[in-house]
Specification:
The chain is mostly helical. It has one domain. The chain has 12 helices and no strands. α5 packs across α6, α7 crosses α11 and α11 runs antiparallel to α12. The longest helix is centred in the middle third of the chain and has 33 residues.
């Protein structure tokens, strides 16, 4: 990797860790660590297990959706290989700061699925755009369904409304820019390498013009309702089940926080989003802190362990030099 790229990645990682540290400090302010510890130890393991199963099941839906978006670039890609690539990318996002796992997923897709990095990145842009717009809709729907709160609670909800509005604008603009870039033809002044990358990116954007795009879009709400179910299991494990509207608010806020380039495992921003969402629906911020951490340890952790197992098996099956 050239030095300039390495330096840029290092700065990106350092900034992500710094952002995560700041939000973690903001989340922990005013909370009793002994209370947080006791609340964590009270979690019911059967509900944590149910959350893990539900979360991993959503990865199957994600893989099906991504396979549909990959049709123009990799029409023969098997679901198993797509799921493996997706899981590896998500696991690296859990281990590295600043969402560098997306770049890893694009590189892994090149080796595992036979795509160019530009084709893989284009499909990831589409996938993340669908995720973002779905998240914003869930968050907005949850906020609209809530009963009127106190002045302090309404102030927190206003922050969430602003986040939803900003998210809708950003995700809509990103999808529009990707579509326009995908249609743009490179001029004569473009290098041959740039022309090839733009052509690959345009090829990935062709997924939007296929009938399968509607199916992929329809899978997005199912993915995020599955994520909401996993969060509901974790909250139930702590003895704090949530109704549909508060759960939609929590799912939307927490999911928006994961799209910010931050520390490994979304440490800090994830906790802050949980605390903000729980207090905005009249809940306990301490429960939000513990729930966020349990999700990171058990749900994200289980996926990371699954990826480690998949990678280990792939290494063991790899032909060795001199094998017949």
């Amino acid at each position: 990797m050239p030095t300039t790229i390495l330096q840029r990645r290092s700065l990106q990682a350092a900034a992500g860790i710094g952002i995560g540290g700041l939000f973690l400090w903001l989340s922990l302010r005013g909370h009793d660590l002994a209370q947080l510890r006791d609340l964590s130890l009270s979690a019911r393991p059967e509900w944590i297990a149910a959350g893990i199963v539900t979360y991993l099941a959503t990865m199957g839906l994600r893989a099906m959706r991504w396979q549909l978006l990959l049709r123009p670039s990799a029409p023969e890609a098997r679901l198993g290989a797509v799921a493996e690539t997706l899981i590896m990318g998500y696991a690296v996002n859990n281990l590295l700061p600043a969402r560098l796992g997306e770049l890893f997923r694009a590189d892994y897709a090149k080796r595992r699925l036979g795509l160019s990095r530009s084709e893989a990145l284009g499909s990831i842009v589409l996938e993340r755009g669908m995720d973002g717009l779905t998240i914003v809709i869930l968050l907005g729907s949850g906020l609209l369904l809530l009963d009127t709160g106190t002045a302090a609670i309404n102030a927190k909800r206003e922050i969430l409304w602003q986040a939803a509005t900003l998210g809708a604008a950003l995700f809509g603009a990103a999808l529009l820019a990707a579509m326009l870039l995908g249609r743009r033809r490179s001029g004569d002044t473009a290098t041959r390498g740039l022309q090839r990358r733009l052509a690959d990116f345009r090829n990935s954007m062709a997924a939007l013009r296929r009938p399968t795009a509607g199916t992929a879009a329809a899978l997005s709400p199912l993915v995020w309702l599955g994520e909401a179910g996993a969060l509901a299991c974790v909250l139930t494990a702590l003895g704090h089940p949530m109704g549909p509207a508060p759960l939609l608010v929590l799912t939307g806020a927490a999911s928006l926080s994961t799209l910010i380039p931050t520390a490994p495992g979304y440490l800090g921003t994830f906790q802050y989003a949980f605390v903000l969402a729980l207090t905005a629906v009249g809940g306990d911020g301490a429960v939000g802190l513990v729930a966020a951490t349990l999700v990171q340890v058990f749900l994200f952790g289980s996926l990371t362990l699954l990826a480690a197992g998949i990678y280990s098996l792939s290494v063991l099956r790899r032909p060795r030099p001199g094998d017949a």
